[in-house]
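User: quick one, sequence for these C-alpha cells?
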C-alpha cells in the first residue's frame, strides 16, 4: 500500500528576499561571496537598508522548502515541517504552502510569537547566489514541531543540512531519523551548503551516523565532508555512508548512484541568471521521479532539466508552463 506522502521534509522556514547586486557590494560590505552566512537581525537590517528598492522578489524559501515545492510542482505529495512567527512574513510563508497544496504543521490561526527568519539572497552578475540569513524563530526549531504521523506516512523523510547549525535543530533531525527508521521510512539528507559541512562537520557526521538511504550534495560539499579531493575519491567516500546518492556538478551535470551502478547525468545547457534553489529543485524533481515510476537515471535527467530551468530565471520556483516544457523535453 502506498504512503500518503511521497516526502515529509523538515527544515528552516525562511522568507527569501531576492536582490541583484554588483560584485563590489560584497567587498564594500565585507560579505563572503558564494556562501550562506548566518547573521544577526541588526546586520541583516543594515544590509537590507543598503539595497532598498532592489528586492526583486519575496517568497517563502529555505532549502528543504524549495525541494518540497519542486516535488509539488511536478505533482508529488509533500508535507513540510517548519517554524514561522505570527508576523507578515510568517503569514506569507504559510499561505505560500497552502497555495501549493503542501500540507504542513503550520496553522494560520495559531502561529508562534517572534520573528520569522529571513534570507537575503544576493545574486551577482555571474548568477551566483550569496546568502545572509537571520534565522529568527526557526533558530529554536525542535522536536516539538515534528509531526510523527506525517513522517510515518511518507515514503521518504527529507532533512536539510542547515538544521545542524542549531542544537535543537540537530536534535530534531536525530529524532525524525529515529522515527523514520522505526517505521521503514527511507531517510534522505541534503548537505545544503558547503558552509554547513565546513563549519559544522562534526554535527553533519553525527546526523549521517551509520548512514542514510539517499544523500544529495554538490562536489565541493562531498569533498569537504570526506576530506578528499576529486570526484572519484568523493564518490568512493560517499558510497560508504549513503546507499544511494546524487553529486551535482553545476554546469557539468551530475552523477547518480542507484545502489548498484553509477549514472552520468548530462546538463541541459541554459543561460544562467540566478542559481538560487538549483540544488534544491534537483532534489525535489529527483524525489518526484523515483516516487513515480522513473529509474534513478530517468529521475536524474528530469532533475537536471528542472534545475536548468530554475537557473534560467529569478527565484527557486517553476510554473506549470515550465513543468510541461521540461516533461516534453525529457520524454522525447
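Assistant:
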Amino acid at each position: 500500500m502506498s504512503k500518503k506522502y511521497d516526502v515529509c521534509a523538515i527544515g528552516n522556514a525562511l522568507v527569501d528576499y531576492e536582490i541583484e547586486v554588483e560584485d563590489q557590494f560584497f567587498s564594500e560590505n565585507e560579505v563572503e561571496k558564494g556562501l550562506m552566512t548566518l547573521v544577526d537581525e541588526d546586520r541583516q537590517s543594515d544590509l537590507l537598508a543598503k539595497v532598498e528598492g532592489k528586492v526583486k522578489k519575496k517568497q517563502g524559501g529555505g532549502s528543504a522548502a524549495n525541494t518540497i515545492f519542486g516535488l509539488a510542482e511536478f505533482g508529488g505529495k509533500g508535507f513540510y515541517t517548519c517554524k514561522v512567527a505570527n508576523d507578515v512574513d510568517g503569514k506569507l510563508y504559510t499561505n505560500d504552502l497552502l497555495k501549493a497544496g503542501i500540507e504542513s504543521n503550520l496553522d494560520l490561526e495559531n502561529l508562534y510569537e517572534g520573528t520569522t527568519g529571513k534570507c537575503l539572497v544576493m545574486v551577482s552578475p555571474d548568477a551566483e547566489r550569496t546568502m545572509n540569513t537571520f534565522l529568527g524563530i526557526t533558530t529554536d526549531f525542535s522536536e516539538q514541531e515534528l509531526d510523527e504521523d506525517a513522517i510515518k506516512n511518507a515514503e521518504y523523510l527529507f532533512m536539510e543540512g542547515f538544521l545542524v547549525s542549531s542544537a535543537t535543530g540537530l536534535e530534531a533531525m536525530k529524532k525524525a531519523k529515529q522515527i523514520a527508521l522505526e517505521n521503514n521510512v527511507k531517510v534522505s539528507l541534503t548537505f545544503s551548503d558547503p558552509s554547513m559541512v565546513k563549519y559544522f562537520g562534526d554535527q553533519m557526521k553525527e546526523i549521517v551516523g551509520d548512514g542514510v538511504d539517499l544523500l544529495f550534495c554538490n562536489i565541493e560539499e562531498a569533498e569537504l565532508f570526506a576530506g578528499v579531493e576529486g570526484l572519484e575519491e568523493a564518490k568512493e567516500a560517499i558510497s560508504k555512508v549513503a546507499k544511494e546518492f546524487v553529486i551535482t556538478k553545476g554546469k557539468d551535470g551530475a552523477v547518480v548512484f542507484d545502489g548498484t551502478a553509477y549514472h552520468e547525468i548530462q546538463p541541459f545547457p541554459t543561460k544562467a541568471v540566478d542559481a538560487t534553489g538549483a540544488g534544491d529543485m534537483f532534489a525535489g524533481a529527483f524525489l518526484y521521479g523515483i516516487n513515480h515510476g522513473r529509474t534513478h537515471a530517468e529521475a536524474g535527467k528530469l532533475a537536471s532539466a528542472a534545475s536548468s530551468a530554475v537557473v534560467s530565471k529569478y527565484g527557486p520556483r517553476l510554473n506549470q508552463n515550465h513543468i510541461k516544457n521540461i516533461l516534453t523535453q525529457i520524454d522525447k
